[in-house]
């Protein structure tokens, strides 16, 4: 092994590590450029969430997409993490907020009443300036905080409890609703969540994708649903890919479902078509 020496560290040279480092650097550079440019490299897609009682759309999750001329499609899981590390997440979230709220205003104009759920990263919920911006953009669009849901990943909340709770409480007092995303992956308990101003949990898709055939997942999901009912929490299942999983969730009292079985995430114009023709649409 060849070793690389710098002033601060020494590692054994590994081609895969170098490749990852180069990719991370390229993503950072390209993302900075994409945020500054007027071309539509970044876009939002929306995935319907269905109220299990009525089997109609109640909400849409807003998910960011990035297509780059050199890199192709970059998954949000990958570039959001890099944006956080590179100090770019505030810019990314600002872009997401502007786009999502403008689309939400458009859908309200068209007469649709569903809410839109936006994902916030851990740094966002500690950024008071950014949260104030969110309130301003929403007010500027003539929309109330109740028309937006904010999704926060469970592990982020466990990691940064105190300041996050303060900001969450302040936003809740202004009428915002929060959901705990990827529930089951962050080692929190429902008892712990009871102390947070949160009314909704989203069971992570890793427990849902194979639900119909996996007895362990079935036990876990039933246990979560049982406890959630006791704690008066609304439960969303993400990653519903087949009819049998949907039927189980329905039978066990899950409140809301989201997944490829209902619809994949769709760009605004495709979503409009979907809303015109889907049996899940009002
Ligand atoms: P998430 O918030 O948990 O979003 C759900 C993810 O599950 C989405 O992946 C969605 O496309 C995917 N999904 C939904 N139903 C199914 C299904 O039936 N099967 C499978 N296999 N997957 C399904 P996506 O869009 O790749 O996003 C990944 C993650 O990236 C999100 O997880 C979220 O943590 C993050 N993310 C996406 N957009 C944003 C954003 O605008 N801001 C921030 N901060 N994070 C975002
Ligand atoms: Mg989410
Ligand atoms: Mg997530
Ligand atoms: Mg998830």
UniProtKB/TrEMBL annotation:
<protein>
    <submittedName>
        <fullName>EAL domain-containing protein</fullName>
    </submittedName>
</protein>
<feature type="domain" description="EAL">
    <location>
        <begin position="24"/>
        <end position="279"/>
    </location>
</feature>
């Amino acid at each position: 092994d060849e070793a690389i020496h710098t002033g601060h560290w020494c590692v054994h040279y590994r081609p895969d590590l170098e490749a990852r480092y180069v990719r991370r650097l390229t993503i950072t550079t390209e993302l900075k450029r994409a945020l500054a440019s007027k071309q539509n490299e970044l876009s939002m897609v929306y995935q319907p969430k269905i109220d299990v009682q009525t089997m109609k759309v109640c909400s849409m999750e807003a998910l960011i997409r990035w297509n780059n001329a050199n890199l192709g499609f970059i998954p949000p899981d990958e570039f959001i993490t890099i944006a956080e590390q590179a100090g770019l997440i505030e810019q990314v979230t600002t872009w997401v907020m502007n786009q999502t709220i403008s689309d939400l205003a458009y859908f309200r104009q068209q007469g649709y009443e569903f809410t839109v759920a936006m994902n916030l990263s851990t740094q966002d919920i500690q950024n008071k300036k950014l949260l104030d911006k969110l309130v301003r953009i929403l007010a500027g669009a003539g929309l109330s905080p109740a028309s937006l849901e904010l999704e926060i990943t469970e592990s982020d909340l466990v990691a940064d409890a105190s300041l996050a709770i303060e900001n969450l409480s302040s936003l809740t007092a202004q009428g915002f609703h929060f959901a705990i995303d990827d529930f089951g992956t962050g080692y929190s308990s429902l008892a712990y969540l009871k102390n947070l101003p949160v009314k909704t949990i989203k069971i992570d898709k890793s427990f849902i994708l194979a639900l119909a055939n996996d007895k362990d997942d079935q036990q876990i999901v039933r246990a979560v649903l049982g406890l959630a009912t006791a704690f008066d929490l609304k439960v969303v299942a993400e990653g519903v890919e087949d009819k049998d999983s949907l039927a189980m969730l329905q039978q066990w009292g899950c409140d809301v479902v989201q997944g490829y079985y209902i619809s994949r995430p769709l760009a605004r114009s495709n979503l409009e078509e979907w809303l015109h023709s889907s049996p899940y649409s009002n």
